[in-house]
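== Polypeptide entry ==
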Amino acid sequence: MKFERRYTRDDRSPYAEIDFRLTTSEIRNPDGSVVFRLENVEVPEFWSQVASDVLAQKYFRKAGVAARLKKIEEETVPSWLWRSVPDTEALAALPEAERFGGETSSKQVFDRLAGCWTYWGWKGGYFSSEDDARAFNDELRYMLARQMVAPNSPQWFNTGLHWAYGIDGPGQGHYYVDFKTGKLTKSKSAYEHPQPHACFIQGIEDDLVNEGGIMDLWVREARLFKYGSGTGSNFSRLRGEGERLSGGGRSSGLMSFLKIGDRAAGAIKSGGTTRRAAKMVVVDADHPDIEQYIDWKVREEQKVAALVTGSKINQKHLKAVMRACVNCEGSGDDCFVPEKNPALRREIKLARRALVPDNYIKRVIQFAKQGYKDIDFPIYDTDWDSEAYLTVSGQNSNNSVSLKDDFLRAVETDGDWNLIGRTTGKVTKTLKARDLWEKIGHAAWASADPGLHFNTTMNDWHTCKASGDIRASNPCSEYMFLDDTACNLASTNLLTFYDVATKRFDVEAYEHLCRLWTVVLEISVLMAQFPSKAIAELSYEFRTLGLGFANIGGLLMTMGLSYDSKEGRALCGALTAIMTGIAYKTSAEMAGELGAFPGHKKNASHMLRVIRNHRRAALGQASGYEALAVNPVPLDHASCPQPDLVAHATRAWDDALALGEQHGYRNAQVTVVAPTGTIGLVMDCDTTGIEPDFALVKFKKLAGGGYWKIINRAVPEGLRALGYRESEIAEIEAYAVGHGSLSNAPGINISTLKAKGFTDEAIEKVEKALPTAFDIKFAFNKWTFGEDFIRDTLGIGADVLASPSFDLLAAVGFTRREIEAANVHICGAMTVEGAPHLKAEHYPVFDCANPCGKIGKRYLSVESHIRMMAASQPFISGAISKTINMPNDATVEDCKSAYLLSWKLALKANALYRDGSKLSQPLNSQLIADDDEDDDAIEALLEKPMAARAAAVSEKVVERLVERIIVMREREKMPDRRKGYTQKAVVGGHKVYLRTGEYDDGRLGEIFIDMHKEGAALRSFINNFAIAVSLGLQYGVPLEEYVDAFTFTRFEPAGPVQGNDSIKYATSILDYVFRELAVSYMSRFDLAHVDPSESGFDAIGKGVVEGKEPEGQPQQATRYVSKGLTRSRTDNLVVMRGGGEARGSAPSSLASEGGTRSSAPSPLAGEGRVGSKVTPLSSSHAGEATEGAVALKQETEHDLSPTERLEQQQRSKVAAHSTAPTKAERRAEAKARGYEGEMCPECGNFTLVRNGTCMKCDTCGSTTGCS
């Protein structure tokens, strides 16, 4: 094949016109801990920090890249395409640490990808000459660097590692078909034949243990999940519940096996990576168990609600029962007898009314009688990865029901519907089609599952019907083909072809790219290996490809077109038609030189029929289609904003049909529209796949860390396209983004804040936080100012401060109206609705999937999503991955109507997401506004007589005085027998011994510092300094104050640190000591040079033992617990992995009657670096353990002074409140930014956005799908 150069020249590098820069890539957790960091990463200058981070973190090869390479000569391959291997002789001359490393430049990645494709393309005979091969290689590298296109993630992970670096390993059970002989071959190498496919469909037979059966599927799925791919299967061949087995028994049914598969997928997800398994489950509408399947996730969501609500009710009432027992002053056992303790009797009645079980109530009374003072009954929450969701099933797959047109016609006519037995083929149950349809609508409304596959439409457009029906799809529903096949994807960034100056889409460049990348994907089939024999054989036989596009939403906004407009839909249809037409034309061209796909001969008539139907749609014909039950939406020629796109589309399909009739086709399918999750971030796409934008204001990541709030880059371009002046655009932009400063703000500004008691230093702090804040309340909080300032300077009580609903601005006296006015000025409206100069008729251009900001009301309708899909679907070989967003107030009828419209517009699949249909994702809109309570309280106060108002104000004054008394405290003495640890280290050549002493609850109370062979003056001075610090700690000076004061101090001795596993360099003895204390007691790993979590058995880089627990018996606790402290009673203690129990309360297993728990506090309490807990194996000593322990027994302690008692009460009151934002607060923040409000399972940030039927993280790039 001939390949022209459009962007490159043969006499220079493809990167000659591209400037590159060095950046540092760093991804952090919300708590500030570093997930990933790499310095001196070379990327194109115009790449964003997020794109650079995703490339460096996800796609760079981290190890095994030799510093010196040599070429391996191959006679039939040009020398510039010879593959490389490590040069062992040259490596031997280098220091061992410098011999191997990882990739650090984007050029390395682009070169290995393009080089590997060109290498295999040459071997496969795809190039007419060496010049064509060079042009192919250079053009691909240029396109990757320019973010014009990207292949799916497995290509980035695997392709070219063997060719570029000689990386190899033993086979992993994969197969490939030799392209020369056509024979199935088992791979001997893990990397020579890469695994570039993301999407798989696997078959399953009604067989329990044999190959291709039920249990075998879990193994095949695991192999795919392990390497980051996704898979889907149709389970309809499995017999229903109660159907007869060959041995005479009856089947446990489809659902029992689906639950096993769900658990297996969840376990794989929890293994190698933390991402959720990408899995699709499909069941036909006539399966005997279809009703249970449809309701599956609805019932599981109900179970989660019951667990969460029930746990809260139980804890509330059981703790009240315990308090009634403990706070009683009766004689003997009177406190534990309801008849003699009125408070206990009242709490028992209230608990019974709330349906708390009697045996639990009685158990708590028994614990109180034994001397326990508190219980810990766990409360479950609705996070998707919480214990509540892990307890129920159905959380690891997308579920779909496969419907044929006969069912949908029966719904329209109110006909009957038969469920058919799998073994007998007889009717097992007859029900009304509308009843089953109602059940589907309700389930989608209540739990966002199941989606629908319109099976008749899928098979009407099936190019290989003679080889079998399409029964399933991949997890995201864009790849639909025969069972046991695979698809590799690539997507173009549409925005890169649009010139804002000429206002023209470069259609010729777009066609050039589509041709090249069809060949890339075809070569990927030739070079690939597959996880099973069947997939290898069928992928070779049908050679399905998945070219697609991304950023249609960004393109439309840039052009000044609404997503919900005829022009927008016509443009999308035309670009899709060109892409698929050129891809089939290229496929026919390859067939002319290399032959059609092996399965083409018996499917030729079906193939050409489908091509003719595609062509009719491109010609804009409303009728005349061959063998279609539902006609598609044809291309709207009249509405297309660029007329030459229509001409190119029709010509592409004319050529595709003519060449196909002459040569056949090399590929059974060529295009899909995928979610483009991670690869969309690498291309800096504003929108993914066919999706509209999710927010108008984005948070741009900065190279040095942190974020900067910016307007979506499509908004200014869209405004220019609509004719607005630059001055008007600037004002609109400022309205949306805000001014980021208190200067000139209405209501809340520097002068009004000073009047409320804010200092210059505090105002400076908030000014720094405002530019990145999306809401003024999130800048005015305890994390910006510190709790001490709010409590001591502003006079706000600790209990008020600890409240989850605490609002600092309201607390200091600003009204709701003042806050809202300042918020719009400072933080921006986050929407263009109400912006100055913007005309109402232009609002639709900037509509997003959800309302933008707090005041935004507009969002795209359900129908607009479906009609955009319908404009593109007639030109796609496969299907479209997309979720239809619905508002919370959508009805079941709305869900059913959306599904029916999708069918009537000839879509192949659809999935709905109604806001709030999953408990794990919070509502976009609150049930009741938070501010209503405050307003009601103010109104109630104003209605009271003056005397009552004075009393209310007096209460506030007294409350503040009490808080001030609590802060004044006496010295808290250390226990006579105390725990701690000794750390020996050498700092700058001088031995230093650090010894700590702890209170019983794990707080640091004293330190001793001793120096070996040092001068008497310094040794004594350091020793007395330690005493002074200890006294300060015992009088309540926070450890963090010492850490902030003494870290980074400089004096001799200083230098490298030996003997400490976390700290490797110190600028002084004091710098070392307080770094060590910060790491050990405050988990301040930012002050450590080595993260202690990386020293465990599960740290990265342990080779074959990576992720394995140490073998043998559980590790004895004597390594961590002082034998002397425990009076030699450490024999029955072991270290268990996981977090410790809540301090000061019971272990959380009320139900476990026979277990044993220690009644002593953990010896490791307060040592932030140790993530273990100590649990006794047996209760050999009386008083050490309790049977069925639920509560923590009261410790004997010295008498407390009145001030200490007050302080202890205050500490216990606020102990439950974290010093960092709660998940609920972070979730609310994420929702306000336009994100889904769900936590990324990989980096922990709340930056997930909907991405087709999946989700992706805008921070680290991980995706719940397969791209």
Q: What stands out?
A: The chain has 40 helices and 39 strands. The two ends are 29 Å apart (CA to CA). The mean pLDDT is 84. The CA atoms of residues 298 and 447 lie 5 Å apart.
